[in-house]
């Protein structure tokens, strides 16, 4: 069954992407690999939303489990019923991964929360977020990467790499889940694929003759 094989392939592809998203989000919560920044509330807002954990991670892995189970379904009615549930599950995974990608892209473009020096002293904030009247953003201006944020050390590079990885992983998940929605709709309309079975049956009848 072509539809079932596609479901299985998508499920296998989603697993490493979910693991990468979860690990990246965990690391974003631990700048310098120290927990006190998280406990004190000095972690970038988009990282604390943990969309890599519950969105591209947990929800997608739940969908993967259902995709793997549905690849073994036999029978036309049972198959179509499963495809209907797969359309729903794939849509949920699509929204979860897409939301994670959007949040990660926002965190990447806004820059990290860090301690920096102002005219009134040291303060925590997001000094690298785009400002129309001063600078368009820090991503293409590497001189800002090391000269602005004082703590956590190396937080700009840390956020750029990990948010970039999350954008890539969740973006691929979004594409795969979107393809799975189309694949499940195809299975719902066409059924489990009877033509290959009919071909095998006719072949075996010829063999008896």
Write the SSE topology.
Layout (H helix, E strand, L loop, with lengths): L1 H27 L7 H4 L5 H4 L2 H20 L5 H35 L3 E5 L2 E5 L17 H5 L7 H36 L4 H14 L1
Antiparallel strand pairs: 1-2
Helix pairs in contact: 1-4, 1-7, 4-5, 5-7
Summarize the structure.
By secondary structure, the protein is mainly alpha-helical. The protein has eight helices and two strands; from the N terminus they run αααααββααα.
What integer value in Å does the Rg equal? 23 Å
Mean pLDDT across all residues, rounded? 84
Estimated helix fraction: 55-70%
Total of DSSP H or I helical runs spanning 4+ residues: 8
Largest sheet: 2 strands, antiparallel
Strand line-up across the major sheet: 1-2
Uncertain stretches: 194-209
Description:
Residues 194-209 have low confidence and may be disordered. The chain has 8 helices and 2 strands, in the order H-H-H-H-H-E-E-H-H-H. The radius of gyration is 23 Å and the shape is elongated. The two termini are 28 Å apart. A hairpin with a 2-residue loop joins strand 1 (114-118) and strand 2. A two-stranded antiparallel sheet has the order 1-2. By secondary structure, it is mainly alpha-helical. The chain has helices spanning 2-28, 36-39, 45-48, 51-70, 76-110, 143-147, 155-190, 195-208, and strands at residues 114-118, 121-125.
